[in-house]
Amino acid sequence: xxxxxxxxxxxxxxxxxxxxxxxxxxxxxxxxxxxxxxxxxxxxxxxxxxxxxxxxxxxxxxxxxxxxxxxxxxxxxxxxxxxxxxxxxxxxxxxxxxxxxxxxxxxxxxxxxxxxxxxxxxxxxxxxxxxxxxxxxxxxxxxxxxxxxxxxxxxx
Length: 156
What we know:
Elongation Factor Tu (Ef-tu), domain 3, flat, alpha+beta
């Protein structure tokens, strides 16, 4: 609370208030939504939070051994930025399957049309071996199958 109070006091002349990004900005910047883009079924490494996990430093905690094994072997899937071709799509209300050569390799969890980038921007959980930038996939949207491409980074 002291930090919160200090921020509001410092921004008093600017009428600073709490807020959140809109959906497009959230996706463009790679800001994950708990319960949507990640859940308790995902590990920190799958969610791109590995830089905050130091399992080898010896700090004891629940999951330390599992994180150390995953860090050594690499995660089985990982969050990626994905562009989806075509006209503006509706928002992803459920996971949209991602496939490669007919096999499911992940899912899009958040999507929106970006006027700034003139594409459908999305966040998806993609299986290892299919998340390299430039990898072309197919996404099954409510508006039909679309070509999708794994991006090098989010659009921020």
